[in-house]
Amino acid sequence: MNFWLARSFSNDNQSVTITRRNLPHIQHDYRPHFVTFCTKQHRALPEWARRVVLDCCTDGHSTKYNLYVAVVMPDHVHLILTPLTDIERQMISPLSEIMKGIKGTAAHAINKQLNRRGAVWLEESFDHVVRSSESLDAKIEYVLKNPVRKGLVTVPSEYPRIWRRPKETPFLPLGI
């Protein structure tokens, strides 16, 4: 059964939105979200397509969401991001719209290059709210080590389709 339901709850200028198609999706404002999405039929993406997907993932960084880390594996993608406020609509950007933008843009570019039509991704994404700073650090490490666990490289820095937000250094003067 494929259905869609949305509910929102507000408390202290923060809200939680729950949407459901086949899986429940919970968005909590101002919190990082760990998202995974997979290729349809677990098809492996060629290297050039992984580069396209990573570019699509980083494209909305600092405008639609704050991206902490992204890794594009042969048949799936992991992201950790915090949705930002859509100034025009005066609301937090819905995670569903962010994912539709990333997956749709990437699929369009991949299909155009391959001169084909059809779904590149499974319709659903798997996501959950990251609950604490320790958990966020652990999730970032999990994402970074995914290519090592899969035997693609020996250290994360060898994998070409990883993006990590530069660490902020509070001790540097502004403008450096």
Description:
Mean pLDDT is 85; it is low at 1-13. The protein has helices at residues 47-59, 95-114, 133-149; strands at 5-11, 14-20, 24-28, 33-38, 65-72, 76-83, 85-86, 91-92, 126-129, 162-164. 28% of the residues lie in helices and 30% in strands. The chain has a domain at 36-122 and 132-164: Transposase IS200-like (Alpha-Beta Plaits). Helix 1 (47-59) runs antiparallel to helix 2. The protein is of the alpha+beta class and 176 residues long. It is built from three helices and ten strands, in the order ββββαββββαβαβ.
CATH superfamily name of the domain at 36-122 and 132-164? Transposase IS200-like
The first-level CATH class name of the domain at 36-122 and 132-164: Alpha Beta
How many H/I helices?
3
Unreliable stretches covering 5 or more consecutive residues: 1-13
In which order are the strands of the major sheet placed? 9-4-6-5-10
Gyration radius over CA: 17 Å
Write down how many β-strands occur, each being a DSSP E stretch of 2 or more residues.
10
Q: Whole-number average pLDDT?
A: 85
Proportion in helices: 25-40%
Written as H for each helix and E for each strand, in order along the chain, the element string is EEEEHEEEEHEHE
Proportion of strand residues:
25-35%
Any idea of the CATH topology of the domain at 36-122 and 132-164? Alpha-Beta Plaits
Secondary structure category: alpha+beta
Our measurement of the CA-to-CA distance between the termini, rounded to an integer number of angstroms, reads 54 Å
**Which sheet architecture does the biggest sheet show?**
5 strands, antiparallel
CATH architecture of the domain at 36-122 and 132-164: 2-Layer Sandwich
Overall body shape = globular
